[in-house]
Amino acid sequence: MKHVLTIAGSDCSGGAGVQADLKTMSAHRCFAMSVITAITAQNTQAVNDVLDIPPAMIEAQIDAIFTDIRVDAVKIGMVSVSDSIRAIAGKLRQYTPPFVVVDPVMVSKSGYDLLRPEAASALKELLLPLATIVTPNVPEAEKLAGMSIRSEDDIKEAAQRIYALGAKQVLIKGGHSDGQPTDWLFDGQKFTAFPGKRIDTPNTHGTGCTLSSAIASNLALGHPVEQAVELAKQYIQTAIEHSIPLGHGHGPVNHFYEYYGGEC
Ligand SMILES: Nc1ncnc2c1ncn2[C@@H]1O[C@H](COP(=O)(O)OP(=O)(O)OP(=O)(O)O)[C@@H](O)[C@H]1O
Ligand SMILES: Cc1ncc(COP(=O)(O)O)c(N)n1
């Protein structure tokens, strides 16, 4: 069995963050582990509060796992403060897991800033160089690349700029674009498009967390990056198609469909 670790924030409503990651990794039949960077009080409508876990406690969680258990892939999600980013980067340099997927979470679907402005440069300088693949959505890619994105050419220019920050591969996701949700992968040489079919639903809470965890699971399972993304794209497409009308805002995507081959 492969062992996959998420380093991310907790979403008590179960749609995004660590909870989405653990469900996704389990659906891929991987053993899922978590290092919690922050506790959020949120639901499908809003993030009401965030408590950042002290960096020493983040380090202690990482040490507890790596000193005892083989880790086949790591996914990093919400890390809001630069001291926590620095702590995580230091530990990953120490333990050198084979694959690191960085989802540069910045703003929740409900509009809350999950990355403090002071931490943006730490994310760029400390986490991107460790990334096997970084998976920004369009607004995140705009921030990382320092440019606005309005066209396919802009996506390609932004991917090249983000690649230059040190990530080995860059996947710019198309969920926030107009039209069909095509994701673009850049490996330093070529661009590969992963087309999707847009589902007209408000229930897309946790799509980015799910996609990056599916990529991490597929890398742990031995798939090369391009195939890991292709399979993850199929996973998120099905999970959105069967998403759950839970709560009064953005409901979660459905992982049970992949677990049991049917609705829960
Ligand atoms: N309505 C949709 N229909 C089909 N696919 C979608 C839809 N919305 C997003 N996707 C796909 O879901 C994945 C996540 O993309 P998205 O751009 O939503 O990421 P994100 O904004 O980081 O997600 P999150 O807000 O959950 O962090 C991508 O593969 C994207 O193409
Ligand atoms: C702990 C945590 N991590 C990530 C997200 C982003 O997910 P979304 O953009 O769907 O709100 C979130 N809301 N909460």
TrEMBL record:
Pathway participation: Cofactor biosynthesis; thiamine diphosphate biosynthesis; 4-amino-2-methyl-5-diphosphomethylpyrimidine from 5-amino-1-(5-phospho-D-ribosyl)imidazole: step 2/3; Cofactor biosynthesis; thiamine diphosphate biosynthesis; 4-amino-2-methyl-5-diphosphomethylpyrimidine from 5-amino-1-(5-phospho-D-ribosyl)imidazole: step 3/3
InterPro entries cross-referenced by the UniProt entry: HMP/HMP-P_kinase_dom, PM/HMP-P_kinase-1, Ribokinase-like
Pfam families attached to this UniProt entry: Phos_pyr_kin (PF08543)
GO BP terms: thiamine biosynthetic process
An annotated Gene Ontology molecular function: ATP binding
Catalytic reactions of this protein: 4-amino-2-methyl-5-(phosphooxymethyl)pyrimidine + ATP = 4-amino-2-methyl-5-(diphosphooxymethyl)pyrimidine + ADP; 4-amino-5-hydroxymethyl-2-methylpyrimidine + ATP = 4-amino-2-methyl-5-(phosphooxymethyl)pyrimidine + ADP + H(+)
Domain Pyridoxamine kinase/Phosphomethylpyrimidine kinase: 11-254
GO cellular component, one term: cytosol
Enzyme Commission (EC) number: 2.7.1.49, 2.7.4.7
Domain of life: Bacteria
Keyword line: ATP-binding, Kinase, Nucleotide-binding, Thiamine biosynthesis, Transferase
EC primary class: transferase
Family statement drawn from the similarity comment of this UniProt entry: Belongs to the ThiD family.
Entry protein name: Hydroxymethylpyrimidine/phosphomethylpyrimidine kinase
Organism the protein comes from: Solibaculum mannosilyticum
